[in-house]
Design a protein that fits this description.
The protein has 13 helices and no strands. By secondary structure, it is mainly α. The chain is globular.
């Protein structure tokens, strides 16, 4: 274990991966609680498809990937929020509508250019391939997400539990829903490089679900989700380093084990209370 710690601390690539991963894990866990409670947990999957489509087009056009993906995913998040506000199209249908459309654009762009291999790292994740420029952008965006979440924590809590009551008390629910959409979009973009578009939604869903097995208050669930997300990320990175497995898949596997453990603990607690 000491050799692994030494390797992470003394290798710049691993240190960059660890820094970005911890920040992204925190962002995803904090937002995941609100998204799961509002039944928008699959928004991460939908926006990741949008981001992957934007990255494919950026690669074909030889543009900067992050510079293209960030505004496109933010626009898609706002569009998704607007569509979901319609009484005719519900949240899950809106996510499917946008994600499938983005995937179609990605397939068309790749088929025209023939450069499929260059996009594999965004599809399955390759955290060790993050460049110094990506690290700077990711850290700035992640810190922005964390600061905004903490600053508007009370408002996010209010619209998460009872949006109608929040509106009645004068809270601008629409604006704060847009804030959650913005923060989620930023988290998805910076997390895609680490986890890949196929697995990024797991960072949003698993920590929140694990915490909800044991804790009941919003604050307890949020704090526990953040801790679980960071611990499972580090454990997944260690497993990936030792076993030579993909980092994204390793982190998800650790989350699955964590969910099983917390489910068992929750069942024991409920049985003792009964």
């Amino acid at each position: 274990m000491a050799d692994v710690i030494s390797a992470f601390l003394n290798t710049p690539i691993l240190m960059r991966a660890l820094l970005v991963g911890i920040l992204v894990s925190l962002c995803a866990a904090l937002l995941g609680v609100s998204l799961v409670l509002k039944r928008y947990s699959m928004i991460g999957d939908g926006l990741s498809h949008v981001g992957f489509g934007a990255l494919a087009i950026a690669a074909v056009m030889n543009w900067a990937p992050m510079a293209v993906a960030v505004p496109v995913v933010i626009a898609a998040a706002f569009l998704l929020l607007r569509i979901s506000g319609s009484s005719r199209i519900k949240g899950d249908s809106a996510i499917a509508l946008i994600s499938t459309g983005a995937l179609a654009l990605r397939v068309m762009a790749v088929s025209v250019s023939g450069m499929n291999s260059d996009l594999d790292s965004y599809l399955f994740g390759s955290i060790l391939a993050i460049s110094e420029g990506d690290v700077v952008i990711s850290v700035v965006l992640a810190v922005l997400v964390l600061v905004l979440f903490v600053f508007f924590y009370n408002k996010i809590f209010a619209i998460t539990f009872d949006e109608n009551f929040a509106k009645a008390t004068g809270t601008r629910a629409g604006m704060y829903n847009m804030l959650i959409a913005l923060l989620t979009a930023l988290t998805i973009v910076i997390g895609m490089r680490m986890m890949g578009s196929m697995l990024i939604s797991s960072l949003i869903i698993f920590p929140a679900l694990c915490s909800m097995r044991v804790f009941k208050s919003f604050r307890s669930v949020t704090v526990c989700s953040a801790i679980i997300s960071v611990v499972t990320f580090i454990a997944g990175m260690v497993i990936s380093y030792e076993a030579g497995t993909p980092s994204g898949a390793s982190i998800v596997c650790v989350n699955i084990v964590c969910f099983a453990v917390f489910s068992a603990i929750g069942a024991i607690i409920r049985r003792n209370r009964a």
